[in-house]
Amino acid sequence: MRSIAASFRGQPDPAFPDELVHLTIPGTRLVEAPRVVDMPPVTAVLPPPVMPAGNPPSGVSVGVEGVAIVTSRRLRFLGPGFAREWPYDVLTGLKDDDRAPITLLQVAGAGPSGVLVPAAAANRFRLHLRLAIADTAGNRAGVVAQIDQFIGWHQTHRPGPAAKAEPHEAPAWAWWTKGRLITAAVVAGLVFCCCGGKVLNQATDRSALPAATYHR
Question: Which pTM does this prediction carry?
Answer without folding.
Answer: 0.68
